[in-house]
TrEMBL record:
Recorded superkingdom: Bacteria
Key words, A-Z: DNA-binding, Transcription, Transcription regulation
InterPro entries found in the cross-reference section: LysR-type_TF_proteobact-type, LysR_HTH_N, LysR_subst-bd, WH-like_DNA-bd_sf, WH_DNA-bd_sf
Name of the molecule in the record: LysR family transcriptional regulator
GO terms assigned for molecular function: DNA-binding transcription factor activity; sequence-specific DNA binding
Origin organism lineage: Bacteria, Pseudomonadati, Pseudomonadota, Betaproteobacteria, Burkholderiales
Family membership: Belongs to the LysR transcriptional regulatory family.
Organism: Pandoraea terrigena
């Protein structure tokens, strides 16, 4: 199967069987048999055969990312094993969204540096979408749905959002008994339009579209919305990794803990991504393992929201 994947990737790069055969130093018939066998094993057609050039089908385009990742992982594993005794030194570049990076990645980087004193980390915190190749980043943390099939993704945690309000707000305005009651409350939300996917959206409600909630305060900064909720200005729908600390301190109350949407098949998540074929493979793998251990299963920030304010962190 691995040889079939190598032939498939070579055919995509060459654009036809004959050129791929020359590149691989094999007969054209061998390339043809490999592709036909792969298509039969997968139960799909990978190429549309044209008169001049092969064109990937939708299934072929989808499978290409997987094939490249498998071959890259194998190559990197061989490299890591051949250099298993090499001393770990040098720089590792890690990128993460600003707030999440400050709250959850920076502490992991600090403990990583203590564990591996020969490694240096360049931690870059920014909310812009990092191009790993252009910005020469080894690992990037991505929150939401992944759209780049060229990247190797490692799942870190589900992305859960909770509806929260301060005890003061609930005492003054009452607690909503159903999700539809949110329409009668002050709700704090982002000012960007349309509403980001997953915000104020709940299974089986409003045909999957965000609830048309209203509120006097909108902002493009989630920390500001969090502070406003703590101050009693309304209800927020924010990620558990952001509200965890405030829940533990009793500054916020989770209103509908079971309505987070994380169980949906296509639910967004938190991933660490890297480019196949980049250097520093072993250091990147070590950091990913360290990050997974730091976050835990379930993530430490979800332990409070699932068990109540009395829960404590166990990192």
């Amino acid at each position: 199967m691995l040889k079939d994947l190598e032939v498939f990737v070579a055919v995509v790069a060459a654009g036809n069987f004959s050129t791929a055969a020359l590149d691989l130093d094999v007969a054209v018939s061998s390339v043809t048999r490999r592709i036909e066998g792969l298509e039969q094993a997968l139960g799909v057609t990978l190429f549309r055969r044209g008169s001049r050039k092969l064109v990937l089908t939708d299934a072929g385009q989808f499978f290409l990312g997987t094939a490249r990742n498998v071959l890259s992982e194998l190559s990197e594993a061989r490299e890591a094993m051949s250099n298993s005794d090499a001393e770990l030194r040098g720089q590792l570049t890690v990128a993460a969204p600003g707030v999440f990076g400050r709250m959850h990645v920076a502490p992991a980087v600090q403990s990583f540096l203590r564990t591996y004193p020969g490694i240096e980390v360049d931690l870059r915190l920014s909310d812009r979408l990092i191009d790993l190749s252009v910005d020469r980043v080894d690992i990037a943390i991505r929150i939401g749905r992944l759209t780049d099939g060229e990247l190797i993704a490692s799942h870190l945690a589900p992305l859960r959002r909770l509806l929260c309000a301060s005890p003061g707000y609930l005492e003054k305005y009452g607690r909503p008994e159903t999700l539809k009651d949110l329409l009668d409350h002050e709700c704090l939300t982002v000012s960007s339009k349309p509403t980001p996917r997953g915000w104020w959206t709940f299974p089986g409600l409003n045909r999957g579209a965000p609830l048309p909630i209203k509120g006097r305060l909108q902002c493009d900064d989630t920390e500001t919305l969090l502070d406003a909720a703590v101050a009693g200005f309304g209800i927020v729908h924010l990620a558990t990794w952001l509200v965890d600390e405030r829940l533990r301190r009793g500054e916020l109350v989770s209103l509908f803990p079971s309505e987070d949407g994380s169980a949906a098949k296509d639910a967004p998540a938190i991933h660490a991504v890297r480019l196949p074929g980049r250097s520093h493979v072993k250091k990147a793998r070590l950091f990913l393992e360290h990050m997974r251990d730091h976050v835990g299963t379930p993530p430490y920030w979800d332990q409070t929201s699932s068990r109540g304010p009395e829960a404590t962190r166990n990192r």
